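Q: Given only this backbone (563 positions), what sequence would you predict?
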């Protein structure tokens, strides 16, 4: 073997050895990254976002993003943070430059026109509004603590929380992974709040595999490996109710509410006739109050109507709506809700009329609320709640199913109101581009289930339809429909010689008929379809049912509408 060949072989062996060492080094680095826990700690000041002139604020384990304001000895919290994370009853009315705080029996309104409210409850600095910590404490049912190193305010608004205990010393990490930085080292026996679990001990959807999200009493939050936690229990913190408690006027029996569309006094006068043959109903809901775009109200409230209803053992919950009056668009509804003056005028009028007529409650059925008006709408409900509670009247709020109105803050609405009425209809409407059911069984089930995710079931009332739509699809694919009550729908099907048969998927009788180039289709609402829906209502444990509307039903439906 020549010297030249030996040199080449040596070079090849050296290259192979170096390549192997690189692979081994890479594997070691991979194994370290993959399996060796990081010992890196986050600096507490960095974790809480400490900066000059800013006191960090933590609510329920979340470091609030807004900038706090230090004004003399008082600390002011960013209003947006307060409303979103501490007390949703704090509301800024930009039209009239007011800070409004709604309590269960009182509404406080404070002008910020001078840059500061009269007693310093709030201040304006640049583009921000700050709420004083002392005022927030006086108005909020929460635990407020101050900690040092670094100086910070820690707030806990949840009163019933699952907790777990460290089975050995272990870290809380910023994210769910052993290479994530350590937020805090905890000792064996320490307890932490575990929002990944419900009060019943059930694991919530979205929990990270093998990791649990936690936060501590002193404001640190992050993730802990499941193997370090044990002993799931529920911690109860006593309520303080400094501004009063939101008590509920809930019925002691299942509710059966029928809506009575009253557009004039003749409708009021025909109550006895309208109730002929009606059975099982314990509340009647006349549509007495009509809004216009300026917030003015037209009232048909009638003392004699209430007397007649009471004589028949019926409660009267009057309805305020935005579809029977001069409201013509979501913009009109938004205008009616958008200022304190409009809301106050509406609340004063409806409260006076409810009391004068002797009605037992109020139902809000404002349907043209779009996302941009949702905050103003929630404020209306809070302020109405205070007014109705002072008068001892029930307050219920109608909403479409959550899939259509995700932007409505149902937890906030249900906190202020006694009942949430979920309208389990208008699955397909006059504006729909294809034919379909007004209220199929899957649609009803999902509407109820989605609502109960956000609202306690003892406050949920399922509203069911006494109407349907007959659809016409022309040869060019254009679709139109007309709404019919039960008897009228049956008559129209007979005219068209349509023969319905039961459709298991929708839980309804269905019929179709081709006439010339037009396809007629109808998903029937009748005693059979309502019976299917009632099973869903019972299974969900709802507080009751409501029906739209009186006069569109056939007599046989009352036999199936029992809870």
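A: Predicted residues:
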């Amino acid at each position: 073997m020549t010297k030249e060949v030996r040199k080449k072989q040596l070079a090849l062996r050296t290259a192979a050895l170096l390549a192997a060492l690189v692979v081994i080094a890479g594997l070691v680095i991979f194994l370290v990254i993959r399996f060796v826990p990081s010992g890196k700690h986050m600096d507490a000041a960095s974790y809480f976002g400490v900066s000059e002139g800013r006191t960090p604020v933590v609510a329920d384990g979340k470091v609030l993003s807004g900038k706090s304001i230090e004004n003399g000895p008082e600390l002011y919290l960013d209003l947006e943070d307060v409303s979103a994370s501490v007390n949703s009853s704090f509301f800024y009315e930009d039209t009239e430059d007011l800070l409004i705080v709604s309590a269960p029996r009182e509404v406080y309104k404070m002008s910020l026109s001078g840059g500061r409210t009269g007693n310093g409850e709030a201040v304006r600095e640049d583009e921000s509004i700050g709420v004083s910590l002392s005022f927030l404490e006086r108005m909020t049912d929460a635990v407020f603590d101050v900690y040092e190193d670094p100086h910070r305010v820690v707030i806990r608004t949840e009163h019933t929380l699952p907790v777990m205990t460290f089975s050995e010393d272990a870290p809380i990490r910023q994210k769910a992974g052993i290479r994530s930085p350590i937020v805090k080292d905890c000792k064996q026996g320490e307890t932490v709040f575990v929002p990944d679990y419900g009060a019943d001990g059930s694991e919530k959807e979205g929990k990270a595999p093998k990791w649990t999200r936690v936060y501590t009493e002193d404001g640190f939050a992050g993730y802990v490996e499941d193997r370090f936690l044990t002993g799931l229990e529920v911690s109860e913190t006593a309520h303080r109710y400094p501004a009063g408690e939101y008590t509920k006027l809930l019925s002691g029996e299942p509710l059966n509410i029928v809506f009575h569309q009253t557009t004039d006094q003749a409708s009021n006068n025909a109550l006895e006739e309208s109730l002929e043959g009606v059975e099982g109903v314990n509340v009647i809901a006349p549509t007495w109050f009509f809004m216009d775009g300026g917030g003015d109200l037209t009232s048909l409230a009638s003392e004699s109507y209430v007397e007649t209803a009471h004589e028949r053992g019926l409660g009267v919950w009057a309805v305020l709506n935005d579809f029977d009056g001069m409201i013509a668009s979501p913009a009109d509804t938004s205008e009616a809700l958008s200022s304190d003056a409009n809301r106050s005028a509406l609340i004063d009028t409806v409260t006076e009329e409810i009391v004068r007529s002797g009605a037992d409650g109020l139902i809000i059925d404002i349907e043209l609320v779009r996302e941009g008006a949702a905050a103003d709408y929630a404020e209306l409900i809070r302020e109405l709640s205070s007014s109705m509670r002072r008068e001892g009247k029930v307050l219920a709020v109608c909403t479409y199913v959550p899939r259509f109105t995700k932007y409505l803050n149902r937890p906030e609405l249900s906190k202020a109101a006694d009942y949430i009425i979920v309208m389990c209809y208008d699955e397909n409407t006059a504006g729909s581009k294809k034919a379909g059911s007004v209220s199929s069984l899957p649609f009803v089930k999902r509407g109820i289930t989605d609502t109960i995710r956000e609202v306690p079931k003892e406050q949920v009332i399922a509203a069911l339809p006494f109407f349907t739509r007959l659809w016409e699809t022309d040869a060019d694919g254009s679709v139109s429909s007309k709404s019919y009550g039960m008897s009228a729908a049956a008559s129209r099907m007979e005219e068209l010689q349509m023969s319905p048969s039961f459709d298991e998927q929708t839980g309804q009788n269905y019929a179709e008929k081709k006439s010339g180039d037009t396809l007629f289709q109808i998903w029937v609402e009748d005693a059979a379809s309502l019976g299917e829906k009632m099973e869903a209502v019972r299974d969900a444990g709802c507080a009751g049912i409501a029906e739209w509307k009186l006069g569109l039903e056939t007599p046989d439906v009352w036999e199936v509408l029992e809870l």
